[in-house]
Amino acid sequence: xxxxxxxxxxxxxxxxxxxxxxxxxxxxxxxxxxxxxxxxxxxxxxxxxxxxxxxxxxxxxxxxxxxxxxxxxxxxxxxxxxxxxxxxxxxxxxxxxxxxxxxxxxxxxxxxxxxxxxxxxxxx
Length: 124
Ligand SMILES: [Zn+2]
Prior knowledge:
Elements: H1 3-9, H2 20-26, E1 48-52, E2 78-82, H3 83-89, H4 94-101, H5 105-123
Antiparallel strand pairs: 1-2
The chain binds zinc ion.
């Protein structure tokens, strides 16, 4: 059993397209990191992508190029991000990356952590 199968068997709730409006609402249609407005059109620096806040770093990890491919993205570890931030962040430690990338790092981290704390009550 790989890690993804282990998570599935553990009854963890997964993000699904239906949750996109909630994510867009919470993050104000904007990247969770740089706060630029996102587009659903692909191929732009501000194209919407789902980001694992803490990278799963698995060989069978999915690529977030297509927002309809959501397997493995759990509510308590998924934010919406622009393509630029998602590519820049990669598999780096999220807090280190945010602190190195943004002046308002504490505000960004607080907003994301509050989101995770609120979703964990609703869905897990
Ligand atoms: Zn961004």
